[in-house]
Amino acid sequence: MRQAITSVITALAVLAAAASLRYLFVDSSFMRPAALVVLVVVGLGVALRTRTRAVTVLLPVQALGLALALAWLFARDTLWFALPTTRTVERAVELVLQSQDTITSYAAPAPVDAGVTFSLTAIVGLVALTADLAAATAESPTIAGLPVLALYAISAANAQTSLPWHAFAAPAALWLLVLAHQDGDQLRRWVSHVPGHPGEDGEERARRDFTTQGVGLAAAGIALAIAVPTVVPHLPSTYIGDGLRDGTGQSEGGRSRVSLSSEIDLRRSLQDPDPSPVLRYQTDDPSPPPLRVGVATRFVDGRARIGSEISGTVPLGDDDAVGVTRFDQERRTTTVVESKVRAPQLPAPFVARDVQVGAPWSMDSDGVVRVADDAQSYTISYDEPLDETEAVLAAAGDTGAGLQDREEYLAVEPEIAGELAQVLDEVVEPGDSQLESAQAIQSYLRGNDFTYSLELDERLPGEHPISQFLRTKRGYCQQFAATMVHLARAEGIPARFVVGFLPGTGSTQERVVRASDAHAWPELWIDGVGWLRFEPTPGGRAASLPGYSLPQQDTTSSTSTTSSSTTSSATSTSQDVAPVEEADTGAEVQWQRPLLLTLLVVALLAVLPLTALLLRERARRRRGSPQEQVEREWERLVEGLGDLGIDAPPGATPRVSGDHLVQRSGVGGRGTEQMHRVVTTLEGARYAPPGRPEPDEVEQVGRDVDDLLARVRRSRDTGRRVRAALAPPSAIRWWGSLPGRVVDVVTRRR
Length: 750
Prior knowledge:
By secondary structure, the chain is an alpha+beta fold. It is 51% helix and 10% strand. Among the domains are: 1-189 and 207-231, no CATH class; 407-497 and 519-549, C8orf32 fold (Roll), CATH 3.10.620; 598-748, no CATH class. A 6-stranded antiparallel sheet has the order 7-10-6-1-15-14, with no helix packed on it. Residues 243-292, 543-581 are annotated as: Disordered. Keywords: Membrane, Transmembrane, Transmembrane helix.
């Protein structure tokens, strides 16, 4: 019981120290999973110590429990019968690298993404494991204070201002409570006894003296630790995480105003450690777009240049002047409550429909809003940016309002024209439309060959920056955007370079944009639609990926070709291998055992895929009315998409579920039409008078479901397709519900 109480107090001390990490991040959402893993680690320790005190048993079991808890919380879809797989390890590595990128890229308070949550949870779990091992298993609570202190030191060393007194007092008091709870005989030797009361024995007097002196010393120590720093001159901080530091030493609100340089170089902004907001705004847009600050059409030595002249002032609402097509869009409003951006720039979404600012302003033909004086607050109304809109895909390529000064947006530096043409020959298919070519270029730059990095390799003598990027395939948003502009222009698609800010972090009540949220992206002119935003920059340091920018064409032929070539290669390889004769019976046994083990593993791996296949075939062949057949096809579609990681909202209507699945899957215009047809037929089967649907409608639904599943399967990454094939969630659910079904059958028979 004594060790159990020690474990509980130690766990509370660890959580109290971990709570101070919230001053380094925008919220404390990581505390919930951290508390869960601490509970697992401490619970295992308490349970095991009732049987053994051996460290060789406790440490491995608690470490295994920590690993399984992390896997269950952050990589549940990679588990195989609740056991980690190689994909689980890969997911953990991905999350750690993501957290490293976030911590080294953002100033405190940094955003809390999945990687940060995983890393903080793992760190807190390891501290809890170490502290519990020292305090309860080894009965050395003094040593347990070291990992608790280290956890608190991370926050104290990286915070931009002094932490509040209770952030230190809580873990310190709990650690002292752990010390007070250790063996009484050992601690009583520290006590200087005073004369006891009449009738009071020595043990009782020692306990009283120890309690009085211990509590007094503890309170005095904590009070001094809190009071002394208030009179000691502030010393420079020693930062543990580079990205969390406050390089300027300015508190929030102390940032000077920022402005856009005519020669754009975003690296300094992206590496800016200052956490002070550049913008704070409120919006009714649940997914706000990037905020444009400037547009560059001219490049000098591969670098975008923004001229000081205004490219023609246009009135609000003149869509032809700014090059947009008005669709049926929802009007949104953004209210900036604090801006540190210096005039004439005024960060705004594209394209503004109304501007309310206390200074003279104008908008140029590139859709950039300019203001005469610095504006600390303003309100802008705009139409919700086009995303995965069928109207965009339908309108692309139509003749409409022409683009003025088209040649300006097609200029390519002659020294790299040949290199750009070679890339386009490999990326763009002959006969592709403007939109298809733009999609292919974006997919090429977002491919696995390219890496996001703020550290660029050295340029060769006389090498053009675009050539350097295409050779090294390393860069940040500026290189990705500039390269897509050049490739698009070389393909004959007008393009321009846009610089501004990502939407920032927070909620609709308040979002915060910092200097490190600076971003660049290309806008391409698509005939029939106008200017559209694309996002070639991969990873988390980019804006949302517009749905229209995803490839829509059918890739069945390329997939079949790849599969055929792979099969041919495997066949030729098998024919080239000569059979090996076994020397004796012992050798035969040596190869038979691995073969049997391999066959067993293959059989186990085939259980779930075969189960999913049998379930689908049984549902397909089951006879019934046309209404029942349509219902089964809908269930097959929902389950198939669920196996691919796209789940329908629980309890939603078919139409809401269809819209959600289309938005999540990115199936494009044709897929949207197919989903609409499936949902309409399903609604007719459920609510229309008898006689609906017709047999040909049922057959069409089956074809649409097959095509939708094939489209989504091809669009998913290799890891997701492999998981869907080897461990489909529908099959896992079937096996998981098997015991309950067996019990129901037995109960009914009785």
